Amino acid sequence: MSLVHLANLCAHLKNCMNVNIASTSVPFTRLHLQVAVGLYKEGFISSLQKGSTAGPDLKAVDVTPDNISTRRLWLGLKYRNNQPVIRDISLISKPGRKVNLTTEEVKALASGLAVRFIKPLQPAECIFIKCNEEVYEVQEAAKRHLNGLALYRVK
Amino acid sequence: MGKGVLKYGGKSGILPKVRPVFKRNPIRAKTAYEIEKEAHLEHGFAEGVPLPKKTGFEFHRIQPEKKVISVEERIKLNIESKAPQNVDESKLTQDQIWKLKRDEIRRDYLKQAYLTEASRLKKIDEIVAQQEEKKKHQTELDDYEESDAVKLTLPTVDSYLKGPIMRNRTKEEQQLVEQQRLLNRRVRELEVEEKRADDLLDLYHAAANFITTEEELEAAITEAFEVNFSKFDSSQNIIEQRLASAGPGYATVDYNERLITDHVLGEVNGKPGLATVKDTLSGEKERLSRDAQVAINQERTDASS
Question: Out of A37, A50, A144, whose CB is closest to B154?
């Protein structure tokens, strides 16, 4: 898992939203898939498809070492009243400043408190946390009493 | 070895079971976990079974709570209140004074024993509480249920995340890839070898005109400057003209023409190329011409007959 790749993903999504693109693709990696699933579950993107650099797959294609470089994950971006649904998406942990949260801190964050330098959660905002190689939304992480690395926030 | 110890595997020195220091009443109230655990415990006889008569004893289906007596209360009750008050030692015999002292030492020991046991029990309680907390956490994790929306909409994506993201090559596919790589490498090596052989042949043909001895050099100088002077002069003029003219294409036309001719005919500077040399060396050319000759002869004999 690389925070650099995550930062690139955030910047890419913001760029796409700025120019009102309907769908975009990102490299097919586990982290990107986890992040995209998180965004989809919380309703920030409209669709999630496997595909290649040419476009979303019409038939299921196996991911093999021969085609991994051309495999992409296609994300359908959402707009409402001509405004992008994702207003902002940014990293919390940076490659040089990783923010590991304890269970108590995760719960505090989920209940709307500020934790260290992380500003409180606003309405319609989500924070994603990585725990045991999986990405959870902060509310879910709090329910499960998890602790982990604060990845990014999206509103 | 006594007879009785055989049932302990022939070991001597089996100690009796340790008696609890705080025997009848607990020293602290029950924790939430204990209350929950003992809530379903029932004793005695089943419903409808007549109870036996026992004087001074009452049957309870659910045991009544025992009164909690804390360690401090016990110390006050069993030790401090029992210490003799206002004893005038001057009126006592030496024996009685010793007994008083002995009793005090015993009370001290009992007090220490109470405190040590209490701290031991406290430690055990803490460990149990930690374990319970852990167990509870694990149960919550196990029992966590995702919402229906998630369960219904995301099974496919979740299935991607469960296994490995990429399927590795099968053994056959891996062998194919390795063969292809080997083939590619060999083709490249062959190309290099052919190029080198071609260059070598080029050098060989060119070497025919090389001047290697002093006599040849003399002859060449005489040829150029005395015998065939006009050719040298005209060549020099042509070179000067070409250098003076602007078009660089003009200078390379001859060279390009020669290159094309060589390429089409498979020759090197108008001399036999690598393919021709190879055919000759392997006897292929000779075999072909022989076959052709035989075919021609055959045709002739057929025509004459």
Answer: A37
Res B235: pLDDT:
80
Residue A94 to chain B, least CA–CA distance (Å): 24
DSSP code, position B223 = I
Domain assignment of residue A30, given as a range: 3-84
B141 touches chain A (CB under 8 A): yes
Q: Strand A71-77 and strand A45-52: pairing?
A: antiparallel
- What sign does the CA torsion over A102, A107, A109, A113 have? negative
pLDDT in tens, B33-50: 888 888 888 887 888 888
Verify that B156 and B79 share a domain, yes or no: yes
Contact map slice: A 42-71 vs B, CB within 8 A? 48, 50, 62-66, 68
Q: Across all residues in chain A, what is the average pLDDT?
A: 92
Give the single-character DSSP code of A52: E
A43 and A79 together in one domain: yes
pTM reported for the whole predicted model:
0.52
**Residue contact B169–A65, C-beta within 8 A:** yes
Clarify whether residues B216 and B158 are in a common domain. Answer: no
ipTM confidence: 0.71
Q: Which residues of B44-71 are buried (b: 16+ CB within 10 A; e: fewer)?
A: eeeeeeeeeeeeeeeeeeeeeeeeebeb
pLDDT tens-digit series, residues A52-99: 999 888 888 888 898 899 999 999 999 999 899 999 999 999 999 999
Cβ-contact A77, A84 below 8 angstroms: yes
